[in-house]
Design goal:
Layout: H1 4-20, E1 29-30, H2 33-41, E2 45-51, H3 56-68, E3 78-83, H4 88-93, E4 101-106, E5 109-115, H5 120-128
Parallel strand pairs: 1-3, 2-3
Antiparallel strand pairs: 2-4, 4-5
Length: 131
């Protein structure tokens, strides 16, 4: 049976690996509570995208974000996706009422949000709030 010290060490190592595994913002991952909390604890800027595969605005936002992620100022972002159609519990938790909602966090605090925005300059301004 592993000791408590070994177990705590394994948990700390797993958290460190999870933070280190955030390759880039372009590597959007499905929302995961543990990864979200780990990114917050690490002080990473975070973007949550509430999207739906059928949403033309979401597709337009994805194109804008793909260009922005190439900019050095946004390299540290961790990006999570919440599926509008299947993750209603997370929609309630983040108070997102429509798809194409972008929510940024700076640490543990929400720093800003937008809905339906596809303007590259205003999306960049939203992202900058989390840096």
């Amino acid at each position: 049976m592993p000791s408590a010290r070994l177990l705590v060490g394994a948990i700390v190592m797993a958290a460190a690996l999870a933070v280190g595994s955030f390759a880039s913002a372009m590597d959007k991952m499905p929302f995961d509570q543990q990864a979200f909390e780990t990114a917050q604890a690490a002080g990473k800027p975070i973007l949550i995208e509430v999207s739906a595969p059928w949403c033309p605005t979401c597709r337009a936002q994805a194109k804008v974000l793909a260009k922005l992620w190439a900019e050095p100022r946004f390299v540290d972002f961790v990006t999570f996706d919440i599926d509008f159609d299947s993750q209603k519990d997370l929609l309630r938790r983040f108070n997102a009422q429509v798809q194409s909602t972008l929510i940024v966090f700076k640490g543990r605090q929400e720093a800003g949000r937008s809905t339906g925005d596809t303007d590259p300059d205003s999306i960049a301004a939203l992202l900058e709030k989390a840096i």
